[in-house]
Amino acid sequence: xxxxxxxxxxxxxxxxxxxxxxxxxxxxxxxxxxxxxxxxxxxxxxxxxxxxxxxxxxxxxxxxxxxxxxxxxxxxxxxxxxxxxxxxxxxxxxxxxxxxxxxxxxxxxxxxxxxxxxxxxxxxxxxxxxxxxxxxxxxxxxxxxxxxxxxxxxxxxxxxxxxxxxxxxxxxxxxxxxxxxxxxxxxxxxxxxxxxxxxxxxxxxxxxxxxxxxxxxxxxxxxxxxxxxxxxxxxxxxxxxxxxxxxxxxxxxxxxxxxxxxxxxxxxxxxxxxxxxxxxxxxxxxxxxxxxxxxxxxxxxxxxxxxxxxxxxxxxxxxxxxxxxxxxxxxxxxxxxxxxxxxxxxxxxxxxxxxxxxxxxxxxxxxxxxxxxxxx
Length: 376
Fold this sequence. Notes:
- This protein is of the alpha/beta class.
- 44% of the residues lie in helices and 18% in strands.
- The strands form two sheets. Strands 3-2-1-4-5-6-7 form a seven-stranded parallel β-sheet, sandwiched between helices. The chain has a six-stranded parallel β-sheet with strand order 10-9-8-11-12-13, with helices on both faces.
- It is globular and about 65 Å long.
């Protein structure tokens, strides 16, 4: 008997980069797979994979009630029309809005993927505490489905949200990130020439891009020979996005190279000596898993998600968040010690093989789907 799986994701490119292998394995196992998502230019690619696509007017830049209501109405119609056996909600808005609608529409089983808790859980002060309490209440309602699993990527997010939303252990699962294809991201030797120090991410303030640029500036002033490269693009729908003018200023100054958005990440990472992510908070950053698979040492921040993606002191180095001077010191130490970079990179590949293989991640999700369907 055919089973129907539906993903709800805020935007199509995120699904393709982070959840596609799960969908493809579900198709292989006989599921009908649907996706409700905000569309950019990926419709043809989604349909080529055999997915049934339901466009969703989900405005990532808006926190307004009107947009939320419109999205909920769309989801209600889709859920009632498709009648999926299990719905997989990915990222914050789909989890909150989709979780509410799934309960109202009588969806038999729900998987909610919490891949980072966002700015509400990073902010400090009394107002932030009130917001967290309110968001926790919303999560409590959205995640109140009787047949549900919430998938966390790191223990800090699990502890924070499970407490706020009163989630019992029976509804919680830990899966370390979205995994990495170890055949696509091969272990390669360090390249020759001037060391390339790489930050690959959406160009958002909370990815620590400014701290990376400040660190690069400090090291250039000290005469450290290295190329500091930014890979990625701005994200105008995100309120934390950097501006084109700021990037142009940095490039004109000569402090960093702008490589733009790239689709050949295995080659990009293999061209680097060192991979950096000075983020303020993450779920479990995919680029650090990919860096490990390629045998690259990592410098990242001692915050939830980032610290869970490395073995500190073995596969990479942790630095304090929002601290460009400490970041510069850590980078300098590794730039000047290629042998240590190689040792850390080798350990990173071993870590990727043991903990981050995408096949493990896919199998864990398919197991959860079947367990929930069996309980329906």
